[in-house]
Design a protein that fits this description.
The chain has 89 residues and is mainly α. The chain has 4 helices and no strands. The longest helix has 28 residues, at 33-60. It starts with a helix and ends with a helix.
C-alpha cells in the first residue's frame, strides 16, 4: 500500500509502516550527510512509534484472557479469605 493510501485509510500503524519503508528507501539513496542525519533521526522516531503501538496491541489480549485473570484473582482471594478469618479469631 502506498503512504497516501494508508494515510487516507486512517490506519495509523499501516501509515507508520509505509512511512518507515519510504524513509528507509530515501536513506539508501541519500547522498547528503546532512539529509542522511535528518532522515535517520526521523526513521528512528517512526520505529519507536511502531514499537509502542505494537506493544499496546499485544498487551491488551482478548476478553477471554481478561475474564480468566479476574477469575483467578477472585479464586486466590477466596482461598486466602477463610484462612485469615479463622486465624484472626
Amino acid at each position: 500500500m502506498s503512504l497516501s493510501a494508508s494515510s487516507e485509510s486512517g490506519d495509523r500503524l499501516a501509515t507508520l509502516r509505509d512511512l518507515r519503508d519510504l524513509l528507509a528507501r530515501n536513506i539508501e539513496a541519500c547522498e547528503s550527510l546532512r539529509d542522511l542525519a535528518s532522515l535517520s533521526g526521523r526513521l528512528q522516531s517512526v520505529l519507536e512509534e511502531i514499537a509502542k503501538i505494537d506493544g499496546q496491541s499485544k498487551d491488551r489480549g482478548d476478553g477471554i484472557d481478561e475474564i480468566a485473570q479476574r477469575r483467578a484473582t477472585r479464586r486466590a482471594s477466596a482461598a486466602k479469605g477463610p484462612a485469615r478469618a479463622s486465624g484472626s479469631v
